[in-house]
């Protein structure tokens, strides 16, 4: 069976990545592409790299006939997404890639994002989209909230350690390095090539990055107590890839064993042999997440490093994985492509 | 039916690209990977980005049982390739990615490469591997010689113009820009990141690049007279992609029409609407070649620009396309993936 | 003696480059920095890399007391510059880095830039700022029009060849590759890191780039007849540097000799030994221009390649060189720094 | 007065950086350049970006007449340096940029570097070259051991905090990101452009990087007790720049105050206003080190971030600063150039 798919926000980077992946999916057809600011343009104009595909032109979102859509991906900006989703048919299956439905507590949402939530009803039914940990709920969900790309990386590294009780919950540091496509296709001076290439810096230092809302929610739920990590993101001169270096207190072997056990049967999460380290270039363009563990020279301290492609496993690949579950398609369908190296 | 495939020279960039593509090919299985200098290592050690694949460890070439192989890709260095192929079974189907069998005239080979050919017999049966122009011969061939990546780019741009007689054959200039993976994975000071990034330069200036041997052979055969182009390659700070700017004398509309007609039914060669220009980033990681045409302000002069990924359509993708033909598999199988952007 | 200097448009890349250079100039003091959109900000806010300098905060241009200024650099956008300069004191020495005063013929200006010139009177006294060829006029000038960065590169390569009569004037092709800072600090989608890095493309193909107005004006004046070159610029994934590959018809030795003779006494123009090729990385951050010559395999054809830093010799370094002349300071003062490599 | 200077190891990146800086130094003349593997070549051959300088050709080290040299920089590889310095005249002033004389305890040297020290006598008189903290000893020294570039960065961030007693000495984490020129000009597969660009990874994870020997020596001496930090370096796709993110336990304001006080009179160490963050692009090519401080959301935890150019303040700039002191030249001479941005 082939399902009819819509993408809202098709002119951004996560939209392009969804098209790239779905174009080769044997059970999905792209029926409608919405992009308000570029409506009327062909995909060849907006994304010349996709010009070989036979795709419909971009539409205003309200021009789309959702009755014909089996599942809709929302790759819209934060805040816009909740406004749009509030008006979509109530029985439409939706995978949202924005931040709008990730935080279950509307108060937490307001704290991190600065505005009252505009779709509180829809929020109640949203399932958090970290596939490997919410698989069953996602399969039954109508609305899935894709995780933040940084939040996904950190959770893949840390959730099994919290669950297994092998690390000190009050001493977790995540030093994360993210490529520039994570910031989207928006016109900001600090995203210009001349500002970014050949340099790097930290941002949102001190615990102000919004993905901390997800870490707090998920890690605390998992531990049954408040868990607050330190998290410092850095912007790097590359287009794709997140690498996060985690500093934890716990026995290295126990940390590695907990991760290896947690992901033994996961097709996309690869725990490297003890002592081996991942690299963003080894996951680029793929849906894989590589995790490495090594013990520090200081006894009882362990370094955990995770790497994934922010546009694939960090957002659009994850979204497709969730959509597969929601449509009862084999979970890995369309997602087993190898990374692009060099 | 599934075919059993070997790759010799699996530890270089074209070898890695072959594995990436073949891993998803529905009718091919990678049975043997040869790489003399890294024999004994697993693919995860040599190419960690391919560690999710269930592949055999690297072997010495003479450890491979070629009786079980349906088709063998040779991704070995120039000169090594002819020595190895001379010793392989005489009925083994081979796609060679090196320069060794591209020039039909052994004297021309010696002129451009500086040594006598060591496999003159095998050379006689070799078919030039530019798929779109040698399709029938390739389908019947035992040994196919993959083209140079620069040579492929230039020929896609110029062959239809020579055939159609729409340009001055004595006034052709190709100014070509190539990414660094074209130089392979060899340890040379000028390929270090610190030497290359943030800079660019021309090399082999003045008509000394070996791919001119292919241009001379092919264009002259096509024209029925000697055709010698000017060709200047430049090295650019990027990993993948060739963009060649061609300066020809002929009417822009006739040039565009000749290209459009020649490639109307080709799945991988995309002639852009008149006046649109290609970019390497729109073909990266794909088997597509984009070609644009625009008229210059000087009457009777036309600029033709072609772009492809040197590792895919320029070598390993082309090789797989040829292998599909040789094994009577649908030609586009395993090659329709979209480019990776950004 | 120390001169008092103002920079208008101090918040762009050419403004920053002027500050970098003048900060170390022994006979100049930066008295006023104008930048309307960022007026009120400190230089540390606008350019943190200049925070060690003791500089005045940015001002609105009309807040500046020009009576105290010995020389003013205008690094404003095209069109804005002529409007501002028309209102500045008529005896103020000015070096303009915009395109506004480069074309002597107001009609030519209108043709290339699309609007009537708003400062025709000032235009009459403007001297074209290609230092090595207008040195005496510049020393006596009140208003000097800095050249385009591409126009400078091409003229350094070609003027001596036209003057010496060693090339065919109707067969000149300039294939130019420019880094991204040449496009300035403006917010355009195609200047984002994720759009530019790892890729390259041609733009303004077919003879539409505005710097052709300068080539036409200068080359024709030099030759005493109309000279129209073919010129194709390309955008490269690097921050600084222009490399232009020139295809001319003429004897290689004569071409090299003409260049060597023309620049024998020039401190900044380096003609490489015959057969050696320049690289942008060897001039980055410096005021040098390197030029190489090689003969093609086709008799009577020669390749000339020039390289310079678009922000230094291509604009701000050139501007300072001109200012030195206008203030009767030794021409090379503040400009002999070595390139930054790697 | 002008001093006569020699550089041994002039063909590497730190050698090139020394030449770049000294070429503009008003009181130094480059008299001899040693580079055994490239002896006989001109500087234009080895470093075309320095071709405008009037410099002697490269020599074998034993061809140099050290009697005419006032001060010698050794930019040789580790281990080679000690062997060469052991044979140099005993009264020659030397600034060594290698790791060979940084560790005062020969046993510690052997532990970190794996071999017995071959110049134990010379080691005894060596002064550790972190200028801002060993200024007086350096001024009187004959042999100064330049610090590691990572070690310099971390010490600038942490020494004042240890001295002031404002942080927990057992809870210091340094997550460091280094550009590729820090690895030198050596031919290693992992330094190729195609391997490095568009990706990043950690290396020497777990406390195995040799610069930890310097941290241990210096921090422990400062604290009067053993201090062992956690240190994880990462390799980034850029040519120059180190950015280190330090996680400490202490009050943010006290941390900032301690740094501001320590560096109030230092010309090269810039403590940013509280809450501002440095970037490698704001120090590139300069001798400045920028340090920023911000408090984490977790009470009592502070993030300190330092940035410098590994080739300048991290090695060759520091070396020149030390040489100035040793020759009784004003310390900042030749080192006040602004960073190169973009």
From TrEMBL, chains A, B, C, D:
Top-level lineage group: Bacteria
GO molecular function, one term: N-acetyl-gamma-glutamyl-phosphate reductase activity
Cited Gene3D superfamilies: Dihydrodipicolinate Reductase, domain 2, NAD(P)-binding Rossmann-like Domain
Top enzyme class: oxidoreductase
Location within or outside the cell: Cytoplasm
InterPro entries linked to this entry: AGPR, AGPR_dimerisation_dom, AGPR_type-1, NAD(P)-bd_dom_sf, Semialdehyde_DH_NAD-bd
SUPFAM superfamilies, per database record: Glyceraldehyde-3-phosphate dehydrogenase-like, C-terminal domain, NAD(P)-binding Rossmann-fold domains
EC number, UniProt record: 1.2.1.38
Active site: 149
Annotated ranges, domain Semialdehyde dehydrogenase NAD-binding: 4-141
Keywords linked to the UniProt accession: Amino-acid biosynthesis, Arginine biosynthesis, Cytoplasm, NADP, Oxidoreductase
Catalytic activity, as annotated: N-acetyl-L-glutamate 5-semialdehyde + phosphate + NADP(+) = N-acetyl-L-glutamyl 5-phosphate + NADPH + H(+)
Pathway recorded for this protein: Amino-acid biosynthesis; L-arginine biosynthesis; N(2)-acetyl-L-ornithine from L-glutamate: step 3/4
Pfam families referenced in this protein's UniProt entry, alphabetically: Semialdhyde_dh (PF01118), Semialdhyde_dhC_1 (PF22698)
Function: Catalyzes the NADPH-dependent reduction of N-acetyl-5-glutamyl phosphate to yield N-acetyl-L-glutamate 5-semialdehyde.
Similarity comment: family membership: Belongs to the NAGSA dehydrogenase family. Type 1 subfamily.
Protein name listed in UniProt: N-acetyl-gamma-glutamyl-phosphate reductase
Species of origin: Roseobacter sinensis
């Amino acid at each position: 069976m082939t399902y009819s798919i819509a993408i809202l926000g098709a002119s951004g980077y996560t939209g392009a990545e969804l098209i790239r992946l779905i174009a080769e999916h044997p059970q999905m057809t792209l029926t409608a592409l919405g992009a308000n600011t570029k409506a009327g343009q062909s995909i060849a104009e907006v994304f010349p790299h996709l010009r070989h595909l036979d795709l419909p032109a971009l539409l205003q979102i309200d021009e789309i006939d959702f009755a014909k859509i089996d599942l809709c991906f929302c790759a819209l900006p934060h805040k816009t997404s909740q406004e749009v989703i509030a008006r979509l048919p109530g029985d439409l299956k939706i995978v949202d890639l924005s931040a709008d439905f990730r935080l279950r507590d509307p108060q937490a949402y307001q704290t991190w994002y600065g505005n009252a939530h505009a779709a509180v009803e829809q929020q109640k039914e949203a399932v958090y989209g970290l596939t490997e940990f919410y698989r069953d709920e996602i399969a039954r969900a109508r609305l899935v909230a894709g995780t933040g790309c940084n939040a996904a990386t950190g959770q893949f590294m840390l959730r099994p350690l919290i669950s297994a009780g092998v690390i000190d919950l009050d001493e977790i540091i995540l030093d994360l390095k993210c490529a520039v496509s994570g910031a989207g296709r928006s016109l900001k001076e600090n995203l210009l090539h001349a500002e970014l290439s050949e340099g790097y810096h930290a941002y949102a230092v001190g615990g102000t990055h919004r993905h901390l809302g997800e870490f707090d929610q998920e890690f605390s739920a998992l531990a049954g107590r408040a868990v607050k990590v330190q998290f410092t993101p850095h912007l790097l001169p590359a287009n794709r890839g997140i690498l996060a270096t985690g500093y934890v207190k716990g026995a290295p072997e126990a940390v590695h064993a907990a991760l290896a056990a947690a992901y033994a049967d996961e097709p996309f999460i690869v725990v490297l042999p003890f002592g081996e380290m991942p690299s963003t270039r080894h996951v680029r363009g793929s849906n894989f997440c590589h995790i490495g563990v090594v013990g520090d020279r200081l006894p009882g301290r362990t370094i955990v490093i995770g790497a994934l492609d922010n546009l694939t496993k960090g957002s659009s690949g994850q979204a497709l994985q969730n959509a597969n579950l929601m449509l009862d398609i084999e979970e890995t369908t369309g997602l087993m492509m190898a990374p692009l190296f060099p």
